[in-house]
Amino acid sequence: MDKTRQATLKAHYRQQPPPLGIIALRHLPSGRTLLECSRNAPGMLNRHRFELKLGKHRNALLQADWRRDGAAAFSCEIIDTVRLLDDPAFDADAELGDLLALHRAQWLEQGQPLY
């Protein structure tokens, strides 16, 4: 790949906003799940993993499960995303909040415990 093409691709990548979405950190043995929304879903997943590895996560029950069972006992993923619209009236934060509430309701409806 030539340098001009590579520079163009890098510039295009940098201009893309990070994906907005709902993340899930699932403790596989217990089925408990932490659901959160973020304007930077991959960054939020990284933050949670980092805090858990440091032993400083703000959710004590989640941290205890991590300490006891290790990283292999967890599934960390982006379960849904929100596409940004060019409409100036579009409220991404409200959309994320509604989507998170929907996912939490579905989780609880299925009898799956949440952190």
Describe this structure in words.
This protein has 115 residues and is α+β, with helices and mostly antiparallel strands. 48% of the residues lie in helices and 20% in strands. The mean pLDDT is 93.
Q: How many DSSP-defined strands?
A: 3
Strand-residue proportion: 15-25%
The quaternary state of the protein chains shown equals single chain
Order of helices and strands: HEEHHEH
Rg result: 17 Å
Number of helices: 4
Quickly give the structural class: alpha+beta
Largest sheet: 3 strands, antiparallel
Low-confidence runs (pLDDT<50, min 5 residues)?
none
Give the overall shape.
Answer: flat
Mean of all residue-level pLDDT scores: 93
In order across it, which strands form the biggest sheet? Answer: 2-1-3
Distance between the termini: 47 Å
Helicity range of the residues?
40-55%
Briefly say what this structure is.
By secondary structure, the chain is α+β, with helices and mostly antiparallel strands. It has 4 helices and 3 strands, in the order αββααβα.
Tell me the layout of helices and strands.
Layout: H1 3-15, E1 20-27, E2 33-38, H2 41-54, H3 60-69, E3 74-82, H4 92-109
Antiparallel strand pairs: 1-2, 1-3
Structural key phrases:
115 residues, alpha+beta, three-stranded antiparallel sheet, 3 strands, 20% strand
